[in-house]
TrEMBL record:
<dbReference type="InterPro" id="IPR001041">
    <property type="entry name" value="2Fe-2S_ferredoxin-type"/>
</dbReference>
<protein>
    <submittedName>
        <fullName>Aldehyde oxidoreductase iron-sulfur subunit PaoA</fullName>
    </submittedName>
</protein>
<keyword id="KW-0560">Oxidoreductase</keyword>
<dbReference type="Pfam" id="PF00111">
    <property type="entry name" value="Fer2"/>
</dbReference>
<feature type="domain" description="2Fe-2S ferredoxin-type">
    <location>
        <begin position="1"/>
        <end position="75"/>
    </location>
</feature>
<dbReference type="InterPro" id="IPR002888">
    <property type="entry name" value="2Fe-2S-bd"/>
</dbReference>
<dbReference type="GO" id="GO:0016903">
    <property type="term" value="F:oxidoreductase activity, acting on the aldehyde or oxo group of donors"/>
</dbReference>
<dbReference type="InterPro" id="IPR006058">
    <property type="entry name" value="2Fe2S_fd_BS"/>
</dbReference>
<dbReference type="Pfam" id="PF01799">
    <property type="entry name" value="Fer2_2"/>
</dbReference>
<dbReference type="InterPro" id="IPR036884">
    <property type="entry name" value="2Fe-2S-bd_dom_sf"/>
</dbReference>
<dbReference type="InterPro" id="IPR052914">
    <property type="entry name" value="Aldehyde_Oxdr_Iron-Sulfur"/>
</dbReference>
<dbReference type="GO" id="GO:0051537">
    <property type="term" value="F:2 iron, 2 sulfur cluster binding"/>
</dbReference>
<dbReference type="GO" id="GO:0046872">
    <property type="term" value="F:metal ion binding"/>
</dbReference>
<keyword id="KW-0001">2Fe-2S</keyword>
<keyword id="KW-0408">Iron</keyword>
<dbReference type="InterPro" id="IPR036010">
    <property type="entry name" value="2Fe-2S_ferredoxin-like_sf"/>
</dbReference>
<keyword id="KW-0411">Iron-sulfur</keyword>
Amino acid sequence: MHFTINGQSHDIEVDVRTSLLDLCREHLGLTGSKKGCDHGQCGACTMLVNGRRVNSCLTLAVMHQNDEITTIEGLGQPGNLHPLQDAFVRHDGFQCGYCTPGQICSAVGMMDEVKKGWPSHVTGDLGAAELTVEEISERMSGNLCRCAAYPNIVDAIRDAAGLGDRNPNEDVGKEVAA
């Protein structure tokens, strides 16, 4: 099978039952994306496929031949971080760090969805979604953080989007953790 992952071509022979997550982790050594629940419930395995967020534990690799796949390793490099990676570091958007690759990949895809005008369940004006705390919490609700770093994750996303810090009196995390 042929795959393009992080801009590099890979021709590899794997079982057709291999998930995209296992292809990257076990066969290509791209271990940034994590296997959390292996049921698509935690988001630790989130990757971008053709720019869209995907729970890579739930999709078969064979389905993504000739797609553009981006893992956390493809977003930035030490000394040249992606703006969201940089914001996560500056805002301490992680504690144990296990969910961080999935959180960042999901945030990249989420910000693109907003840019394209795709509404979420909480979008008030269907013509112009804004990255409010409520909007970010709703859109990131598929990515869980066992350490509960949600306020810092929201701050990092808002910062990367050029929106500044949230109001510290806002209750962040209840929508995500619920």
